[in-house]
Amino acid sequence: MFQKIADKFDFSIFLPVLLLMGAGLVAIYSSTYNHPTASGNFQKQVYFALISLFVFFFFYLLPHKSYRILAPYAYGFSLILLIGVIFLGKTVYGAKSWIHVGPIGFQPSEFAKIGLILFLGYWLTYKKRNINNIKDVGIALLIGLVPVGLILMEPDLGTAIVYLIITFTMIFWSGLNLFAFFVVVSPVVVIFASFFGTASLVIAMLLILIALFFFRRDLFTSITIVVVNLASAFIFDYMIKFLKPHQQKRIETFINPNADPLGAGYNALQAKVAIGSGGIFGKGFLHGSQTQLRFIPEQWTDFIYCVIGEEFGFWGSVIIISLFMIIFLRILNILPSVKDKFSNIVLVGILTLLFTHFSINIGMNLGITPVMGLPLPFLSYGGSSLIVDMALVGIAMNIYNNRRQYT
Amino acid sequence: MDTSFGSKDRRKILLVIITVFFAISVFQLFNMQILERVVYTEKSTENSIKKITLKPPRGIFFDRDYRVLVSNKPSYTLQIIPANYNTKVSPLLERVLGMEPNSISKILAHNSGYSNFIPRRIKRNIDFKIVAWIEENKEQFPGVEYVIEMQRDYSFGVNASHLFGYTREINTRTLKKMKGIYSLGDYIGIKGIEKTYEDYLRGEKGYRLVIVNSEQRIISSYENGLKDKKPQKGFDLVLTINSEAQKVAEKKFKGKKGSLVAIDPKTGEILAFVSAPQYDLSEFASVVSREVIRKLSKDKDKPLFDRATMSIYPPGSTIKMLAAIVGLNEGLITKHTTVNCKGGYQFGNRFFRCHGVHGYTDVVKAIEKSCNTFFYKLILDIGLDRWAYYCKLFGFGKKTGIDLSEESRGIVPSSDYYNRVYGKNKWGRGNLISLGIGQGELSVTTLQLAQYAALLANYGKTVKPHVVKGYLTRNSQEFIPFNFDSVNVNIDRKYFDIVRWGMYKVVNGDGTARGIKLPDIKIAGKTGTSQNPHGKDHALFVAFAPYDNPKIAIAVMVENVGFGSSFAAPIARDVIKAYLQSQSEIDNQKILSSIN
Fold first, then answer.
1. Closest CA to B541 of B517, B562, B525, B520
2. Is residue A1 in a domain?
């Protein structure tokens, strides 16, 4: 009986997700406990959780074929929303990322993720697509880069990076040869390295030279790639000067959070202090001094993980990332059994999205990646991201349910 | 690599990325929460636990009979936190507080190197009406606050400004040297007893631990205050001063310039100590003292200058007893040696005058009548360097070592000194002659004269002069005495007897101070006139009493008034009288209480 159900409904994804949502509610309760302005957030998040469960079942139960049909419309609608937010958006924390319809506010860049994953999957698996054809790669990149450009205009650097990574991973999954993939990705790596100063830029360029040596392409191609990489780093460096000050600051902050402990680096530092001081077993529910005395502003959003770290310690923290690992490994496990290419690559897109959010968020809480303002899936406070994440889980489990079917 | 859709290799790469990140995260968590936990816990504690310093009250001063001289009282202090302060309200505040324009910005500029969140004192002892007014208009004055602080209370009838001294906000230089003990805004004694006994008076700071949130608002006490430390009040000092004698001395010096030091000759305890004009210590307590000090230091009468220990002048005839003792001790004269005073002394082609014609004069008469002729001859016999030796023996030309911060050593001329000042062989015995009557280069302080009087009173034995007897322990109020070195000139008692008899006759015979004779108290003394090239001479008087069993030795100097007997001697008499009367009253009380 159970096996029959388990064949259609993947508990090894659904249960960890439920547990993570529960942990999120606990952490939100703690971080907003007795808070003068945010004490209502726990209750709101409970509503969001209930709505997101409905959304999950809606997407889980939606006819399998409808996703492919809906994909172009979802993408188109997403682009309209992303353009709309630039004109109609409300500025929150220096970024225009919210649209308000009556009493409900939402972030188009969250919902557009579904559109991107579905449409990129649709396009990459359309008939006999050859990804190793330069035109096809170009179009695939374009599908990803259009929303990236729109999101950068808000500007929301973190989300733009998530979109880039989703695009790259899905292109990679569809079989792009490694050299081409290298050509596409290396400029992005170089740009990132250049954030950290000349030394890391030099190291990145050296790595690229080594890689080029192993690819054994002709001299002309190799030199062109080196020049393009260098040029992109310099152009980006130049463009950073046009970034909003808060974004420049975020980059500086990541590079050295100790430099300005009461300024922008404050959150990153306080988050580390919260987690580190949690010790093995934590300070106990509602007993984390960093959390209860509000040393981390808006902790219930991007820094929710350090509530767990402080109040539940090493074991609590490890359990949370282990639950995520179960979900990720389970999706990886399912992949070979998903026969339909579209479903298969959509599943990879969902995995990439969840993992990117997870790794960047946990990374910034632990001080190993920059502070990029990305929520932790299922735990962070916020309706848009929870509903979208649950929709994606719904799609993933729909794909699992229909894994044996070809469309 | 396989370029087919969703190949095994590509799945492996995703698997590796995910697993590696998981490993890194767990490793980092292990690192932070287990290995470096202590570091982060410390930081988290620092974050939320604030230490509020509690300042102890300073120790207070009692006189020798445990009457309060200086105490503490609570008062309102207005302070400004520069970070929150709006300089636009300065003119209004200055007007309300009665301060000079721009004085607030000067105060704020003074310690500008320190954190803007440390409050700066603007004015102490402000009126409650002003406090109420500021409280009512709080929004207009961001960063302006008032606190209750303990401040010195001088309302006990004794001012003794140069003796007590004062405290002041610690300056930046001292602060750097004394880090850990003091912090910005602390008061530190910088003059008088407040300075020398700073370590006893200051007390120990305490603290209160409180839990604050990220806005630094106090949420609650930390561990119910169990780890708090109470401030320890400074030790109360028992001074050697006698209030009655001190009050009389201060009163007698009103409107005069000069100094007075009275000592118990047996113990070296200073009974009264005046440098006039004085300054008002209560002014120091109420205003941020920088302004007051600036005003006082411009005063032409130099009230900040401690005349008792710092002002030096020739001792005049008061030095004659020393010359007599040297003559007797060195066998240059005996009790019966006489000199015929014909109104002066012929030395080479110069005639040194006496102020009378005293005829055949022995040493006692020479002191009684202050005969110069006798001492002109004697000093020539003593010689310069022997004279210098004895002057030093009796405490001149060196610091007495009093427990007050500043003291001048005075001048005792010797051959070396004259060679240095006039050049070798450019001075002669003529210079020596005027030294015999206490004029010329020999310069002393009133404190040294008082110690000299004490040595005469007590046959060459006394204790270093001091103003503090000891302190009281915090809990049991037990008296712990301080110890001071004794002083002994080791000269035969019989020579003192001769000189003391001369001093007795100065007051009780036909001497220069017979005007201050008292029926019930036998005073022995000696007048002096200190020649002053800049104006009228200074009047001097040294004395001790009672003659048979001296309980008080005293030196009085009044500036620019002329001859000693008319000005200095009556002051000495009144202080002696006040002291001995208060002692006999206390003795009577003791007798009464022992009977009961």
1. B525
2. no
